Amino acid sequence: MGGLGTKNSILEKGMGVALLGYVFFVSLAAFFPDSKDQVLAHFDKPYYTAGETINFKLYLPQKYLEKELMIKIEIYNPEGEAVHSSYLKSYHDHVAGYYDIPYQIEPGMYLFRATASTGYKSEVLTLLQAHIPVYSERLLDAPNSFTDSTRTLSTEVIGELLVDIEIPRRDFQPRDSISLNVLVRDPSGKPLKAFASISITDVQLIGENRQTPAIYTASPQYNSQQLSDFIQLQGHLMGSGPREMVAFKFAENNQMLYSVTDENGDFFLALPEFYGNQVLQYIPKYSQNRELRWAMTGPSSTSFEKLPLSPSVQHYLQESRNRKLIYQLFKRVEPAAVKAPSPHLVTPTPDFRYDADNYPFTDLQTFSREVVSPLKFIREKHSTGHFQMFDPDSRSMAYGTPLFIIDGQLTKHQETLTSLDFQKLREIKLYSRTTTISEYFGFAGFSGVVEILSKEGLMKIDSSYLLKSYQIEGLQPSSEYSSPNLPMDQPYLVPLIYWNPKISTTLEPGQTLGFRHSDDQGEFKIEVVAQSEDGRRGYGIILYQVR
Asked: Same domain for 269 and 316?
């Protein structure tokens, strides 16, 4: 961050070393006999401030690389509340992700947790836990809090491989384009093919200590065949007996999902792969009032350390505040949105379809009486009546209230249906035949299904009348870190110079990576973590100056 002014190349030697002791805290054994049997996490920086992005890569043990695995990433605040949750799919060589820290986040030590599940019984297996310092410029308003830290740094050897990093020179100017080569060798000097991640950071962040901000954690005794490769949820249906069907509508692609309860009323729901947050809508078979609970999978207990506040952190926060003020002037504070792949929609073919504009009715009851269709409105004494569906195949009335889908919103509330303004409707689709319902809706549509599309696009319905829905997290869309191509009159001051978790090294020198340095000046560290095809690890660093 020296672009805001010339800074010393090395700041607070002892404090920088002590600071790293707070960077990640994991309860680990002091000695690991074989690093390739551990889970390793490489983070792009040792600590973060509000508004920055936590980038990371997980290196899995060799025994976990036999097939793709579904890994859940969670981040918890010091109160033990989840502030981030997403899934990552391992692709044999890496598992890389990120978390965009909100600007309004409270400072503190945040728990990073990576887990996998075992088969359909969903035993949660913790692969790695680490505590990450997250700061906020608001801490500058209490300068007396910044005192020297006294904790001693403890580091572990990453592995036996040699990682060579070559750059054309060691002295650059701001905005220079920098190229480098990475070559991975075994202890005898033989080149190896490997997967690697690279981070380039300001040495000011870590003082004089050159060690990696990486973490090991002991590998659990599970083979890859026991670990799940799909997204799954564990739930409990209150008052349920064994073998009761549970149904959901998955808003991502209009797909119906099903599960069966066990003798305790528990069930496990397998979800198709999807990106970002989505809505899962519960469709009760009987009473809409029965409660459904999702199992809590967070850590049972965590012990959070106190956030270290050294003078070097105070200096960094001041420069971070200055950078954000400058960026506000150029309207470049918010990061660009990451686009997720579009889902493949399941589009059921209705048995009957009606354009509402063709009928001059005021309500759905009149439509069901005046138009020959399977949807019937049954009048009752001392009641407004109710809707029922007729199956032309069996020539009989279906039992119970049809499932109504109104602009994607699910309900079986009769008063909601009778109060609909027909003139606001655009299209009515009826699913009444047993074969159609079986193909698209299963037992959730055994009373028939009515899909209504309004002219508004999203008709307002009292939420208390809708079937319960749940926000769920899916796969995280991939993100590429790139240096912006800015004109010289636009400031380019960044907390991270470069990050790339998807490097594949070859057996020959010559593979070139390139990045553009920012306006920041001082000393910078290029750090590479690598893992060979047989699971061995290595680590390399090199320093350069920008004047």
From this structure: no
Residue that finishes a domain, picked among 411, 434, 468: 468
Report which secondary-structure segment, H or E, holds 420. none
Joined together, the tokens standing for residue 545 give 């100056």
In a domain, 346, yes or no: no
Give yes or no: residues 443 and 527 share one domain.
no
Residue finishing a domain among 438, 468, 498: 468
What CATH number is associated with residue 375?
Answer: 2.170.130.10
Integer-rounded Cα radius of gyration of the chain: 29
In terms of domains, do 336 and 457 share one?
Answer: no
For β-strands 255-260 and 245-250, DSSP reports them as antiparallel
Length of the chain: 547
282 and 391 part of one domain: no
Residues 169 and 27 occupy one common structural domain? yes
320 in Cβ contact with 328 (< 8 Å): no
Tell me, yes or no, whether 318 and 286 share the same domain. no
Domain that holds residue 314: 2-224+299-341+477-546
Q: Enter the tokens of residue 99.
A: 């978390």
Domains in the chain, number: 3
What is the chain's pLDDT, residue by residue, as a tens digit (547 residues)? 444 433 333 333 333 333 333 333 332 323 334 667 788 889 998 889 999 999 999 998 887 877 789 999 999 998 889 999 999 998 766 789 999 999 999 999 899 999 988 876 667 888 888 888 899 998 888 766 665 543 333 345 678 899 999 999 999 999 999 999 999 999 999 999 999 999 998 887 655 454 545 566 666 667 777 788 889 898 999 888 788 889 999 988 888 999 999 998 999 899 999 998 899 999 987 656 678 899 877 776 666 777 877 777 888 888 889 888 887 777 665 455 566 777 778 889 999 999 999 999 999 999 998 999 999 998 877 667 889 999 888 888 988 889 999 999 999 988 888 899 999 999 999 999 999 999 999 888 989 999 999 999 899 998 888 999 999 999 998 888 877 777 888 888 888 999 999 888 887 765 678 899 999 999 999 999 999 988 899 888 899 999 9
Judged by phi (left if over 0) then psi (alpha if -120 to 50, else beta), residue 338 lies in: beta
Q: What is residue 323's DSSP assignment? A: H
